[in-house]
Amino acid sequence: MKRRIAMALIVLASAPAAWSQDIVIGQSVPLSGSNADIGRDMRDGALAVFAKVNASNTLGRKIQLVTLDNANNRQRAAENTQQLVGQHNAMVLFGYNSATNSVDALPLVAQNNMLFFAPFSGSLSLRSHPNVYTIRASYKDEALKILAAKRDVGASKTVIVYYDDQVGQSNYEAVASVFVEAGSTKPPGVAVKRGAAIDASVVEAIAKEAPHYMLATTQFSVVGDFLKIANDKGIAVPVAALSFVNPDELIESVGNMARGTVVSQIIPSPRNSNQVSIPVVKECADALNALNGARLNYTSLESCIAAKALVEALKKAGPKPTRESVLQAMGNVGRLDLKGYTLTFGPNQRHGSNWVELTILSRGNRFVQ
Fold first, then answer.
1. Portion of the chain with pLDDT greater than 90, in percent
2. Alpha-carbon distance 170 to 124, whole Å?
3. Residue 326 shares a structural domain with residue 225
4. Could you give the CA distance from residue 125 to residue 129 in angstroms, rounded to a whole number?
5. Residues 342-355: what's their mean pLDDT?
6. Which of 126, 149, 201, 347 is the most buried (most CB within 10 A)?
7. Does residue 255 register a pLDDT over 90?
8. Within-domain flag for 6
9. Same domain membership, residue 88 and residue 194
10. Long-range CB contacts for residues 332-340, cutoff 8 Å, separation at least 24
11. Same domain, yes or no, for 118 and 151?
């Protein structure tokens, strides 16, 4: 999915505060390393929206998205947050790429009474914080949808694959609790190292449990590694995955090997038919094409939707927004109809949606409902 980025925002660390009258939105995502394409899609989906808003002078002030590269590294993400809040005076933190790269920002957003909006994660490790507002369903919501669909076809036994760190363990416990609450025994888990390729021992440990399917709470690379090794060894274990798996990257990495893989989705599909039938999908596709000619995918669509919601909160915060007023405004947005995707925020409702659909990789290397 390599492509030329026709427009990029570059912020020099030594630059003076020349944008003081602008609304600065701070973002930390991977722009280098194996997840760079995902980070660029997250950045560009939002940039497409902000470019249109700036061109129309909707807010009376420009939005400046400052995106810093965390290389998918927690330490760098923490350093980026310090820089965004301090040096760049970000009014909002927006669209971080995972819970792992978000958790260290929580003390700073609390200290500065500011909004942390739309992290790309359904992890419970973020969702209890009063400054965090999301546009997506939780991992528990996703797991419940997968569990119900698999039970309908007689598949009840699973193994949960998760990262062997604080956030990964939290995700495992959250997903496993869905099975327990549904009357099943707690599924076994297999831990893998974040950022590292898995080896045959992991695949063998999963197969040893004789599951009806594997449920991945990891990024696409773990699923891709599993499918390649299982294919080589003749191990047939169907795969289901939470939306943390990027379906576009999975297709690119393993292609037909992933056929039959189920991935839960928390936004509508960006496919061309939806660009005809769902206005928000078409709007995002057109905005992204105008920005850099890129093709809309799940990641850039989620970022576009999140940016649209954030703009509504900025409108509500008035002509002279502050960190505190934007945080308060987000909690008073109410029902937000984005023409094909609806969000609801209130004083006691910080998570705008619990919508989930399941997709399966079918012929032609396409994820379909």
1. 86
2. 7
3. no
4. 8
5. 96
6. 126
7. no
8. no
9. no
10. 333/309, 336/309, 336/312, 338/280, 338/305, 338/308, 338/309, 339/278, 339/279, 339/280, 339/283, 340/268, 340/274, 340/278, 340/279, 340/280, 340/281
11. no
Q: Please, where are the H alpha helices in 128-254?
A: 139-152, 166-181, 200-208, 220-233, 247-254
**What CATH number does the domain containing 99 carry?**
3.40.50.2300
Domains held by the chain: number: 2
Residue 16: predicted pLDDT: 35
SS3 130: coil
* 145: containing domain: 139-265
What single DSSP character describes residue 81?
A: H
The two three-digit tokens of residue 100, written as one number? 């792992």
| Mean pLDDT for the chain overall | 92
Residues 260 and 281 in one domain: no
pLDDT of 18 above 50: no
Do 166 and 119 lie in one domain? The reply is no
Residue 205 belongs to a domain = yes
Element of type H or E holding 262? strand 262-265
112 and 144 housed in the same domain? no
Could you give the CA distance from residue 129 to residue 35 in angstroms, rounded to a whole number? Answer: 26
- The amino acid that residue 205 corresponds to is A
Confidence of residue 13 (pLDDT cuts 50, 70, 90): very low
pLDDT of res. 352: 98
Residue with tokens 């197969």: 207
Closest by CA to 146, choosing from 362, 354, 369, 357, is 357
Contact present, 237 and 209 (Cβ < 8 Å): no
Tokens of 37: 């394409």
- 170 lies in some domain: yes
Tell me the pLDDT band of 246, cut-offs 50, 70 and 90: confident
Q: Which helix (H) or strand (E) holds 307?
A: helix 298-316
**Whether residue 175 sits in one domain with residue 110:** no
Residues 98-155 have pLDDT tens digits of: 999 999 999 999 999 999 999 999 999 999 999 999 999 999 999 999 999 999 999 9
In a domain, 365, yes or no: no
195: left (phi over 0), alpha (psi -120 to 50) or beta: left
Residue 190 tokens read as 């297999």
* Average pLDDT value for residue range 305-324: 97
